[in-house]
Amino acid sequence: MHRITEFFVGLLFGLGLLLSGTTDPAKVLGFLDLFGTWDPSLAFVMGGAIAVGFFAFALAKKRTASFLGGALHLP
Amino acid sequence: MTIDWTNFTPWASLSGGILLGVASAFFILVNGRVLGISGILGGLLPPKLGDAGWRVALLLGMLAAPLVYGLLSPEGFVQAPRIDASFATIVAAGLLVGLGPRYGSGCTSGHGVCGLSRLSPRSLVATLAFMGAGFAMVFVVRHVL
Question: Which residues partner with A65 through β-bridges?
């Protein structure tokens, strides 16, 4: 069960990277070129990820164990 | 500052970002771990007994992503990204990309997504540092040199 969920998380993360444009080096350079012709797209990646992650981590802080019953490894 | 409207992909990037957020949310809530890719990969070098399976499973999922994406996407399979640099430059860059997260205890996924999501001051400092360094480096390479 654990191995399946871990594989699924990796798959989902990889699909997110591909869809967002983060896997394209030219796209990354376009985002970092603030003083040239700037492509702000990648700001939307972090924005979208944090918008979801914020609620997940707020919920995780209130819990003592993960849904699968294991320890919550929060830094 | 001029905006590059021709390459601007707000919806694809936002959707992709939401997927990254969902993956991070799933991992902390279901598996109880922070989704920090560099740390997950780094923990395999060298692999430790009893601590390698979950890392390998997750990385295999990531490696399967381009295949699944190609099957689902109307545009078909993803083209391998082109990097205009010599082999030596790529090796040096890869080494730096590995060293940074090791010293900084995390990368864009661990600090930038998970750390900022849980409002960690340490992650905010790390994110500002690596993003700032990225902006500065591209500025120097493209507009100064």
Answer: A71
pLDDT given at position B43 = 95
Measured CA to CA in angstroms, residue B25 lies from A53, B44, B116, B135 at distances of: 5, 23, 13, 28
Using CB atoms and an 8 Å cut-off, which of residues 20-59 of chain B contact chain A? 20-35, 37, 53-54, 57-59
ipTM score for this prediction: 0.96
- B70 CB neighbour count, 10 Å cutoff: 14
A53–B63 CB contact, under 8 Å:
no
Minimal C-alpha gap between B105 and chain A (Å): 11
Residue pair A12/B24 in contact by the 8 Å Cβ criterion: no
What the block records as the tokens of B40 is 């997950």
Q: What would the two tokens of residue B63 be?
A: 């490696």
Q: Place B53 in a pLDDT band, splitting at 50, 70 and 90.
A: very high
Question: Cβ A45–B68 below 8 Å, yes or no?
Answer: no
pTM of the model: 0.94
Separation between Cα atoms, residue A68 and residue B98, nearest integer Å: 31
User: A62 to chain B: which residues are within 8 Å by CB?
Assistant: none
Interface membership of B121 toward A (CB under 8 Å): no
Instruction: Report the residue from A11, A13, A26 with minimal CB separation from B20.
Output: A13
Counting one residue from chain A and one from chain B, the pairs whose CB atoms sit within 8 A come to: 259
Closest CA relative to residue B28, chosen from A47, A15, A65: A65
User: In angstroms, how far is CA B66 from the centroid of its own chain?
Assistant: 15
